[in-house]
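FIELD: query
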Amino acid sequence: MVVMSDGSVPEASRARRLKMATHATHERLDTAIMARRPFANRERYALFLEVQHRFHRDVDPLYRSAALGALLPDLAQRRRLGLVEQDLCDLGIATDPSGATPTSTMDDQIDVPSALGWLYVAEGSNLGASFLLKQAAKLGLSETFGARHLAAAPDGRALHWRGFVAAFDAVPLSHLQEEGAIAGARAAFMRVQALVSELLALPAAASAQEVDG
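FIELD: result
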């Protein structure tokens, strides 16, 4: 435990508190995704890519928000929807225009704390994408073909994430608003969980095991 010179214990950063508050939800999602073997072949990867497309389409209005951009200065440059769409195009998959997004493009209607939670999840997904990119490489995919959205930022994953966290932690929020950010992050994880269940079906063998169990 770190103790300050005045004897106090420093409070964890907002990002750290949010991580701890959503750990169980995040773990369930990771387990669900990997159980569906998204890198078993290109066909299954394409299903995973559909999940990514739906989620990034959901959060894209937040990345284009002037209000949120004022709080997180490089937000617009962090958008990955276009990269996901290029990946779909690489694999010969047409984008699906259906499905409502749970976020608003109107700055004056954005719930900032909740939006921060959604953005935390979206940005965090790229931090951990190095493993996914290695799995995609086994399918002949790369940062320039089919797995563009999994690539690291030019400044590196860690530095890119630290830049986001610094701005994220600096946004002034009340305790109640911080709870809203946590709720937003949980909603984002649950949204991806729902998309995984809808679009990325369990492999036949795994489905049979679940029935037998």
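FIELD: remark
The two ends are 43 Å apart (CA to CA).
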